[in-house]
Amino acid sequence: MSSLFHEFLYRPLVNGLMFLYTTVAFEDFGIALILLTVLVRVVLFPFFYRGFRNQTILQRLQPEVKRIQDRHKHSKEEQARALLELYRAHRINPFSGFLLILVQLPILIALYRVFSKGISGIAREDLYGFISFPAAPSDMFLNLINLNDSSIIIVGLAAVAQFVQGKLALPRGGGGNDMAARMGRNMLFVGPLLTLFIFWSLPAATSLYWFVSSLFSVVQQFYINKSLAGHTVANGT
């Protein structure tokens, strides 16, 4: 399994990073990292879009979900049937969030391995024959930040971007005062705090990846909100 991971995920990403670094990124590790991150997110856009869209609709449906739970509190079977009908009417899968995690987890692990090593840490034997190794590899970003070191500035920017994406995902008015709505509002702060806690001591390359990915999520969430402007809970349109 590890050899399959190496050959079909790690090596393609390493070679993609090195190709970008030596061709269009002006041998700047940060620029190559940003370009590779954007390319990965574009390729995975259908998975992310569907997952984020479903989660956005689920949050907007929480008041209706609460009404169904109260209406059928004495019958779990009727409650489950009514919830399934609600999800079907809105054409969403309540388990899409788990599927999204399953799809992106091995890619996230591979990207972490690629970025955490830096350009200078890439093994020559992992490169394809048509990819050249630079004469003087550098792990600098804009000649200002060594991406092998930690950077609280980049981590802070990533946390802010994650907060903005979460804010955009919340329904107007916060979605009510039930437990699910309160948990959604709490996650607005828990996510960025976890980002600060996890990434503050990691190489800045991983933080930069998370920042760029979060920015991509902000744009994607804005697009989702715009596409759902006419979506109403009442009729599932």
Share of helix, binned: 55-70%
What characteristic shape results from the CA principal axes?
elongated
Structural class: mainly alpha
The number of helical elements comes to 9
Order of helices and strands: HHHHHHEEHHH
How would you classify the quaternary structure? single chain
- Give the C-alpha Rg: 21 Å
Q: How much of the polypeptide forms β-strand, as a percent range?
A: under 5%
| Averaged pLDDT | 86
Beta strands, count: 2
The low-confidence parts are none
Order of strands across the biggest sheet?
1-2
Distance between the termini: 44 Å
Q: How does the major sheet shape up?
A: 2 strands, antiparallel
How does this model look, in words?
The protein has a two-stranded antiparallel ribbon with strand order 1-2. α3 (45-60) packs across α6 (96-117) and α4 (62-71) runs antiparallel to α5 (76-89). The protein is mostly helical and 237 residues long. It contains 9 helices and 2 strands; from the N terminus they run ααααααββααα. The mean pLDDT is 86.
Helices, strands, pairings?
Layout: H1 2-23, H2 29-43, H3 45-60, H4 62-71, H5 76-89, H6 96-117, E1 140-141, E2 145-146, H7 152-169, H8 179-199, H9 204-227
Antiparallel strand pairs: 1-2
Helix pairs in contact: 1-2, 1-6, 2-9, 3-6, 3-9, 4-5, 6-9, 7-8, 7-9
